Amino acid sequence: MSNLAERLKNLSENPHLSDWERGFCESILQSLEKWGNLTPKQHNLLQKIEGNYTEEKLREISEWKQNFTPEMRQRAEIAANYYANHAGYYRDLASRFLSDPDFVPTSQEYKKLCENDYALGVIENALSEPKFAVGTLVTARANHPRRYRVKNKLLLVVQHSMNVSSHAKGAKPVIVLPIGEAEMMWTEERFLKLPKKKKN
User: Fold this and answer.
1) Within 13 Å of residue 195, how many CA atoms lie on the same side as its CB?
2) Residue 77 pLDDT exceeds 90
3) CA–CA separation, 156 vs 120, rounded Å?
4) Nearest 10 degrees: CA dihedral of 88, 90, 92, 93?
5) Domain ranges of the chain
């Protein structure tokens, strides 16, 4: 086995590789076996990947995993749920996080998943204190998406959820029961308000 092939084999067995990095190593190993050499672009990418896993980098990875707190996991789970179910980005990473309770994303993956403006808004909505406590009677604002069903009705707040589908301010999910009906419905806090107090 050539030195280059051995480098590729050893690198592909690195458990820290991303799915893309592992697939790249396997692909260019096949190219090497077929053509006996790599293109300059393949060489450059190989060196870049190897540079991500020096002893110093591996030590940083280990420290990152050790310092991955339950709070960070909660934030990542909220963001992953949003991207897996409500948005078109980062679905592979989100699905991997949600399907493996022991999976720890890299620091770069965590930043990508949790620290962009959309994710920050979603996480804030999920973790914020409910504006309306369970058992509160509310009414729908004029901009409620289903205003024709809930117009002029009192709604009983039944349950809150962290399954946020929007980064918009106030988009905390809530289940309400229109008074006089048997079927509950999902809505968001931004579409609700307290009833006006009757004047004496």
Assistant:
1) 15
2) yes
3) 29
4) -150
5) 3-53, 69-127, 137-193
